[in-house]
Amino acid sequence: MRRWNGWGDDATSMNLTTGARAMLAERLGPGLPGQDALREDLLARIPPSRLPEHPLISREPSERFAMALGESFADWIRKRFGALPAVPDGVAYPESGEQVRELLDLAQAKRWMVIPFAGGTSVAGHLDCPVSEQPILSINLTRMNRLLHLDPTSQLATFGAGTPGPLVEAQLRAHGYTLGHFPQSFEYSTVGGWVVTRSSGQQSLRYGRIEALFAGGRMETPVGPLTLPTLPAASAGPDLRELVLGSEGRFGILTEATVRVTPLPEHESFHALFLPDWDRAEAAVRALVQRKLPLSMLRLSNGIETETNLTLAGHERLVGAMEKYLAWRGCSTGKCMLMLGVSADKRTARHALREARRLLAQYGAVYIGPAMGSKWAANRFKGPYLRNTLWELGYAADTIETAVDWPQVKPLMLAMEQAARDVFEGFGQPVHAFTHLSHLYPQGSSIYSQYVWPIAPGGFAPNFERWQALKAAVADAIAAHGGTVSHQHGVGRDHAAHLVDEKGPLGMATLAELCRHFDPHGIMNPGKLLQDGGPWATAALPSIG
Amino acid sequence: MRRWNGWGDDATSMNLTTGARAMLAERLGPGLPGQDALREDLLARIPPSRLPEHPLISREPSERFAMALGESFADWIRKRFGALPAVPDGVAYPESGEQVRELLDLAQAKRWMVIPFAGGTSVAGHLDCPVSEQPILSINLTRMNRLLHLDPTSQLATFGAGTPGPLVEAQLRAHGYTLGHFPQSFEYSTVGGWVVTRSSGQQSLRYGRIEALFAGGRMETPVGPLTLPTLPAASAGPDLRELVLGSEGRFGILTEATVRVTPLPEHESFHALFLPDWDRAEAAVRALVQRKLPLSMLRLSNGIETETNLTLAGHERLVGAMEKYLAWRGCSTGKCMLMLGVSADKRTARHALREARRLLAQYGAVYIGPAMGSKWAANRFKGPYLRNTLWELGYAADTIETAVDWPQVKPLMLAMEQAARDVFEGFGQPVHAFTHLSHLYPQGSSIYSQYVWPIAPGGFAPNFERWQALKAAVADAIAAHGGTVSHQHGVGRDHAAHLVDEKGPLGMATLAELCRHFDPHGIMNPGKLLQDGGPWATAALPSIG
Predict the structure, then answer these.
(1) Where on this chain does FAD bind (chains A, B) (predicted)?
(2) Per CATH, which fold does B1-30+382-494 belong to?
(3) How close, in Å, is residue A491 to chain B by CA atoms?
């Protein structure tokens, strides 16, 4: 069963080896295991619903509570410390686009606010309920989870928007296809959620981001349906798919998504290599991705993350022996691990791997083989479970990600880690910060930094304060280096204040105008993407002429 | 010097072989060479300018006339038959974004209409001047034609929006880079024009469409500048680049474009193969593009185009010998020619070509070698010159293109050709219609049909009528099969009436709302993309709630 106050299924947990525990203790001091709040106590404090009875709507407190929060750090500590947030007044579970339409029409007529929900895996506060006079209806799309149509000739599959990763892949696999979209949240996140937050999967190098996979579909907006035909490409004016992508529930609710699928690859394997230091590693992966070889994944850990991962791996004797060999080959302190995936027909996979190894060798890369890669692949969705384990040991963990052009990748990576250290130094606490690049492009790379620190005493408020300070400092570093507000998790509530740095004033006014256009009464997922009360929220830019 | 009433430089012409002339005579009967209008006569009829004197604006009739028309068939016969259209009242040649800003502010304050101009190669009526009470200012961007910045680490190059293809490539080549964007209009069309019409180049299979190449830039809109930062990827809400792409001058004027460039490929070659018939050929190229091999071009001619091209090629003895060999290998009547390009490092190019040949052989493909491919590459931008030659022989020619998912590719291709035959049968005239697929995607393909017919007696009116009937009938066929209004040439004036078939009513209302947002006084390129007076032009959809 899915955990109510932690990541994932409660039958799965990630153990931390003795070595890893020792490393945490050495770097961070002892953890402070908290006293978790009880779900029953939280449920008992949920106020009565302000919605009337309706056959499609449940007003059950436990269901309303389950829709109230996602997986952002703020959401997480609310549950752990029992800091009850505003919760929706009711939950609807539509089974069709028609029912979504009916619910939206009803909500608009009554001026209820609407928050769409599917996998509940947002790490950016997309599910946050505002404190509002208006009743809030959560529309849960998880019953719309079927493969509705498969066109093998065009390699197009149409899914209900609430279909989660495993059901996407299982229904496609039955026909020999894959979508190839594997974000770390794969177990729960849905095709509709991927589209409206512009998600990226671990093998985006082969399959593309969701922008490349989303071919068309249907969005129900307050003012009517927007249908997006599937076309291989078009020059027929602005591409309206690109307004649905990243719309984060502000313009309407995506009900159906048609995605581009691929036959299951004849060959797939993952390989580990080590490079002597960051500068050579970065130069190597940049040259590699700019060569445009048919690889499916590149993931480069910096020195601290490499050391952390090798400690987490356990198998101390085996890892020790490997490190001796690596040191003999020139990769010792500061070495960086590169995980490389190939997914293609057998001969193309062989060609790509051979060429990649040949190029990487010029930068001092040492090839270790597929064993660590297979282990990585087996555990590819397990990372978030570590957060549970850390919490139980008294440590908090969060991740912040961005993307930027190549010249800023290293400076920004260092600045993000340093910003975290500075913030926690201000609180008199240590933090363990480490980083990898997981989505590489000829133009630049995503930067994915992870932070672990001891839970502070005092419950919700001091821990929330530390986290807000961390987010603000790292966001400032990102903005100062020209990084994006988010590479793969969307804007939500948590990054909305910084969006103007990226979109500019006219860009923000344009998004606000689109909100008013699709949602004239402002009922859709308020405060997400665009903050309430920004200068763009009330009026377009004044006309100059 | 550039021809005033035909395609291209007057030092270049394409000769038609005796065999080709015989084929035309046999299929279409004799041509009717017209009496071309004289430029001087047209210039003499241009009414006085309604614009005041201004240091940035020329009111010279010859300059105004040169901005009045593009290369659509309607534009072409206006010049040839001397049917003078409305012309702009003045032409400005800004040399910087600041000057564009100044001109836009002035135009908005005075309520002048603005039509941006650069390469003048639109085949969709983007440059058409409305008959209007308001003066019309053409803003010619061709002086903004420089490489402004090159970032070799991120492989990004920033150009003035008016930089034409040859100056894009020459300035990049000096540094060892290419943009790789080669539309047939390459000699004159510009980077800004490519962006705002969503252009696609002949090697889009490697380099991507302009959507994939356009990383960011700056657009001056009537209400202020929209700046688009360069980012390798982002999940920060709707992608505003996608509003600039395809905006066709309705939202503002793109002044600078930053594009993703690539080192010149180590190896590039083009290869010809023949397949026995359309069904096997289509199945072969579909399988090939779905294999995702690192090829740079695929271009499949149908049987009629293959026969036409072989006749056009001349070298009758050589072609005759080749056809004997092909027939012996199973490719005779109805055979289809496939042109295949590889551009990559040497080993990847070898791998890709070998794998492609192996796969194609399963469908009966016969490989002819690189000689015809080299010839194709040498003449890759010469196609439009043939239109001049045909006109001089008394034949009119036009092309119509679209893209659609695979199941509709063959039915739509046949329907487009048949629609043309039916239209001309109604006029008691023959037409020669033939087609190729030039941009192939795993999901579907572009369809590029060409039509040649004898010029009708009677000058502009009857020839315009025939062309309108052709366009309408083929557009209906496209809409009936779910094809896009345009795959690579944009909407302009000529396809605006059909855009609603693709975007739907709410999509059209959204585009209209964006026009009002960026251009509250409606001065920007009126009637293009969105027709004047459509139901979406005056009001958004009524709110339901």
Answers:
(1) 116-122, 197-200
(2) GMP Synthetase; Chain A, domain 3 (3.30.300)
(3) 6
